[in-house]
Structures are given as C-alpha cells and as structure tokens.
Amino acid sequence: MRDDRFRVAMFGSFYRGFYLLNELLQGDISEQVTVVGVATDDPEASYVSADKRVWQYPHTVYEKVMVSELAKERGIDTFNGKVNDPEFYEVIDQWKPDICVMATFGQRIRSRLINTPKLGFYNLHPCIDDSWPSHYVGGNPFEGLMRDGKRYANIAFHAVDEGFDTGPLLGLSGKIALPKETSVTDMHKITSYSAAQLASKEMKKIFAAHQNSCKKAL
Predict the structure, then answer these.
(1) Neighbour-count burial of 165, counting CB atoms closer than 10 A to its CB (0-12 exposed, 13-18 middle, 19+ buried)
(2) Looking at the domain assignment, is residue 179 inside a domain?
(3) Residue 114 and residue 159 in contact, taking contact as beta carbons nearer than 8 Å
C-alpha cells in the first residue's frame, strides 16, 4: 500500500454510505485514498434517533449492516457506538484520518471530531438548489421534499460545523429526478450514486489544493 495516499475515515450507513464506501474502494478516487476506518449506525441505539431518520421506515436486516459488512469484507476497522465519546476518540486517533466524510449518519459531530482531520470533515446532505443553508436541514430532508411536492433533489457536499447542516457549501450535484410516487427510502436509493460521485469530485479538489499548497511551501 502506498504511503502517499490520503487517509479517509467514513461515517455512513444505508445506501448513501454503501455507495460512498464503494466509490472510495473501487472508484476513480480509490487510487488516491486509503479507507482507514468506518463508523456506521446502529439503528437499535437510542442515540441514533432512528424514529427521526431513515430507520423509521421499513428496511431489511441487511440494509442495517450493509456498510459494516462491506467494510469488514475489505478488512477495514468498523465502529458503531457513540462517536462523541472517549472510547471513539481513542479509535479515531489510531485511524489518523486526513479527511472525514459523512453519508447518512445518525449522530451529531462535535468539535473534537471536526478538528481531528487536517483536511476537514464533510457531509453529503439532500436538499434543493434554493439557498444554503438549505430549507431542508435535519435528519429527514427527503420527507420535507416529498411533503412539498418537489420533483427533484440535489445533493450538497458541505463542511461540517457544530450547527445542523450549516457548514460552508463546497459543491452541489445536478438535479436528480424524483418520481411522483416514491418513498423516502426510494429517494435514498435513487440519489446515492450521484452523492458518491459528488463526494469523489469534491475530495479530489481538496486533495489537489492541499498538494499545491505543499509545493508552494517548499
């Protein structure tokens, strides 16, 4: 394994987490990164607030563990406990990520974790191209989009701060069509590939900017 790869920790679950992890492992960006750890949801845990997130809708046993199973298949360290806790602080300090990316994750990220990776902590959030921060903040944006009769969604790639989906916007996907008769879980499935591609594109920009900065410093 090359030691010049960027070290990535992924925080994710369900289809968005699955597609992002796949992109990191076998997409174009895989030549630039090493996935050093994966934190994923335990839908049965109270701190995940499953009743306010995608886990409130029907889902299979496999969909609960699809991210952790993929990570384990590839020999990647996984964690599904509380992340704002000394136990996980020790774990992430061992992972030593250069960058962290979140994709459907049921816990708020606090300053201790935000400030850990030198290249930043980022999130993928469904929204619409209205403004930023989006009107559709929070744990279940697809429900809001569906309630308002929207026929498309965008995915935002933004920096994480201690607010709720309020960190600086870095990139926005194109419009992803949403069928008239659809569900929240369908929306997750429909948009997850585009989310992974957006993350890959924006991470490449972050890596290039870092490398250029390092060259100028020499």
Answers:
(1) buried
(2) yes
(3) no
Write out the two tokens for 97: 């990520």
In terms of Cβ atoms closer than 10 Å to its own Cβ (0-12, 13-18, 19+), residue 94 is exposed
Q: Could you tell me the residue range of the domain that residue 115 belongs to?
A: 6-217
Give the CATH number of the domain where residue 78 resides. Answer: 3.40.50.170
**pLDDT by residue for the chain (218 residues), tens digit each?**
457 899 999 999 999 999 999 999 999 999 999 999 999 999 999 889 888 899 999 999 999 999 999 999 999 999 999 999 999 999 999 999 999 999 999 999 999 999 999 999 999 999 998 889 999 988 899 999 999 999 999 999 999 998 888 899 999 999 999 998 889 999 999 999 999 999 999 999 999 999 998 888 77
Q: Judge if pTM exceeds 0.85.
A: yes
218/214 Cα distance (integer angstroms): 7
